[in-house]
Specification:
- The protein has 329 residues and is α+β, with helices and mostly antiparallel strands.
- The chain folds into 2 domains: 1-230, Thrombin, subunit H (Beta Barrel); 233-328, Pdz3 Domain (Roll).
- The chain has 7 helices and 21 strands.
- A 6-stranded antiparallel barrel has the order 1-2-3-6-5-4.
- It starts with 10 loop residues before the first helix and ends with a strand.
Length: 329
């Protein structure tokens, strides 16, 4: 009799080693499932489905409580311009919510509920995240309330263009499936701690989704609760990112590959008062290289407002260091 090929044997025919391998596989699956279930059970009670009424339309999204006294995080694009916001939780309870503050440049908003205490999600840290670790999204895609998807952190440190036109830095990429309606919901790790706020997808892509990192969110929330807004600097100019001729970079000992060409200067604005003119090339600001509009936006922080900074320009064959005082945008 011909021997039966090993790969055709069932588990019982393989004996104890085969059963041990099956048990090991089961244990691994159980560990993964247990991590997801535990994280969801910890966070889901804090997640809300938002129904948002505007003047001429309605929308929806997700949010989650991060304090027990009724403060929720969501996306700016979910609630911007809302006439009424209603938050519905997993237990079926619904409450009206009211805006506290929003920052379109990071797509983050804080809203507040009245009434009794809420279960609150724990905010983790995105500083120590590693590519490949478990990422779990909870939200309300297409109105299917409290939907859970799981994947991994696919990449760190991405940049994403906000609807305001500015770049959101330090964005997390994940393959945990997100769809319209997930916006504003939490992205959590295996401990059930929030590591990001789900923000965007690439339509038509498979498994390319983004969340604003929670460390960025925390910094924004502090300013929203304190001031109702995030303060950013403003120079009063319109510009375009252009390549910087290598001969100019060598001549002026610059490591720039690009610069910002000033297209127009707002009359009586900070740049005009400093002496900047249309056609000038901005190569440095505050001692930092400027390789484009996004670099300039990144450097115009609230700390620059009202203080003098050096704006370095190339005008023809001259290099100019102008003292400029940024205003608040």
């Amino acid at each position: 009799m011909e021997p039966v090929p090993q790969f055709l044997l069932n588990e019982s025919a393989r004996g104890e080693p085969g059963r041990a391998a099956a048990a090991d596989n089961g244990a691994l699956l159980d560990a993964y499932s247990a991590a997801v279930v535990a994280a969801v059970e910890a966070v889901a009670p804090a997640v809300a489905h938002l129904q948002v009424a505007f003047d001429r339309r309605a929308g929806s999204g997700s949010a989650f409580a991060f304090t027990p006294d009724g403060l929720l995080l969501t996306n700016s694009h979910v609630v911007h311009g809302a006439r009424r916001i209603v938050a519905t939780f997993a237990d079926g309870s619904s409450r009206d919510a009211h805006p506290v503050g929003e920052d379109p440049d990071t797509d983050i908003a804080v809203i507040r509920l009245g009434g009794a205490a809420l279960p609150a999600a724990r905010l983790g840290s995105s500083r120590e995240l590693r590519v490949g670790q478990l990422a779990i999204a909870i939200g309300n895609p297409y109105g299917f309330q409290h939907t859970v998807t799981a994947g991994v952190v696919s990449a760190l440190g991405r940049s994403l263009r906000a609807q305001s036109g500015r770049l959101i830095d330090d964005v997390l990429q994940t393959d945990a499936a997100l769809n319209p309606g997930n916006s504003g919901g939490p992205l959590v790790d295996s401990r059930g701690e929030v590591i990001g706020v789900n923000t965007a997808i690439i339509p038509g892509a498979q498994g390319i989704c983004f969340a604003t990192a929670i460390d960025t969110v925390k910094a924004v929330v502090v300013q929203l609760l304190r001031d109702g807004r995030v303060r950013r600097g403003y120079l009063g100019l319109a510009g375009a990112t252009v390549p910087l001729a290598r001969r100019l970079a060598r001549h002026f000992t610059l490591d720039n590959e690009r610069a910002v060409r000033i297209e127009s200067v707002e009359k009586s604005g900070p740049a005009a008062k400093a002496g900047a003119e249309a056609g000038d090339l901005i190569v440095r600001f505050g001692g930092q290289a400027v390789n484009g509009i996004d670099d300039l936006h990144r450097l115009l922080t609230g700390e620059r407002i009202g203080g003098e900074s050096v704006l370095t320009l190339l005008r023809g064959a001259r290099r100019l260091d102008l003292s400029v005082v940024a205003a608040e945008r």
